User: What shape does this take?
Amino acid sequence: MKKLITPQATINVQVLLTGNELMSGVTTDSNSAMIAEKLSTIGMALSRKVTIGDDMDVLVQEMEALSLNSDVLLVNGGLGPTIDDLTSEAVSKLIGKPLVVNQQAIAHLESWCEARSYPLNQANRKQAFLPEGAKVIANAVGSAVGFSVKWNDCVVICTPGVPSELRVMLDREILKLLMEDFPNAVAPSITRLQLFGLGESGLQQSISDDFPDWPANVEVSFRAGVPTLELKLTTFTEEDEPEKELWKTKLLLNIGDYVVGEGSTDLQTEVVALLADQNKTLTTVESCTGGLIASKITEVPGASAVFQAGFVTYSDDMKNQLVGVPDSAFKANGAVSEAVVREMVIGGLKISGANFGVAVSGIAGPDGGTDSKPVGTVWIAWGSDDRIYTQRLVIGRNRKLFQLMVSAIALDLIRRLLLNIQEPPVYFSTYQ
Assistant: This one.
């Protein structure tokens, strides 16, 4: 598949992340991903990111080197009140302008401190000293404003390292500033499809095999996640939009059963919406997932209209007492068996009065497995009073991922049932 050369490539954006905590691994960098995602909405993309510690000489050197080779340099971190917050001083050295008390910055600090009944001490005042001539970038959340300067024909934008502050500044200030400075940047049109049950490599191979004539002006990309995979279709001109819709339709004919929905949706949101549309209700009976399926469902606003009861029956006694699983079901093949999950669904449906139910019983590990039932074995039952389906899977993950994947599969099987999808999902054979 041909790689599309897009207008994003004409604007060179680089990020400089600062802080000893990033270098030591104490803090995980999430800001660069946030920056990249936000920039993509206005037709820009990161070409490089560099991470350094709190060292003045290195900071100035990297700013100089990066600004010489970029149109936009985003410096993230180092604007706080402590002695190791060096960004303002480093920019001052870089551009040869003194640090001065910025009136906008000091007014912001005074207002911020007053609203919280904090004293404006000398440490806080440090955040108001900015390079002379710097343009203030408002921070509606935190105490430290951001600022920008021009150097080496590069827009240098300095922001605090706190993710919640950065997010607000990007949304409210920085993207607007960049669009003013680079009006020719072309914002892409992105269609996001959320998939469950297909892997990234398998999906890429399928697209390459089934669509060898895929057009270069409709860019395909993926973002792997757990439990869903995001597939993105991107175009950069209005003229290409109809073609994107055409190829999305062709793609859905091939993989539509695995498409949970469009945009930023997820399995639980779609299941709740389908149940509401059909005026149906669901119950859950969980053992190895410990209530995670029910928890996912109740994350969704409006879930109470379609979900009235779930049961966490971790022990055999509770399976018997709460949902009526008979002793004979355990004696035949144990708690992790087809007979038990079938009875769990039957009991859950009877007690709750729900239209549909799903039940899971498995071995999450790390202990408890046998030769016939290794760690990762799970039996799932789902359906209604009319028909109950069952499936055995072996999901070789650690305990947390096992529970997450079992919960996702349970939701997906209900989604497929509500959509009347007859074809068995690929993961039935994958997890055998």
Remarks:
- Residues 1-9 have pLDDT under 50 and may be disordered.
- The chain has three domains: 7-181, 189-262, 267-430.
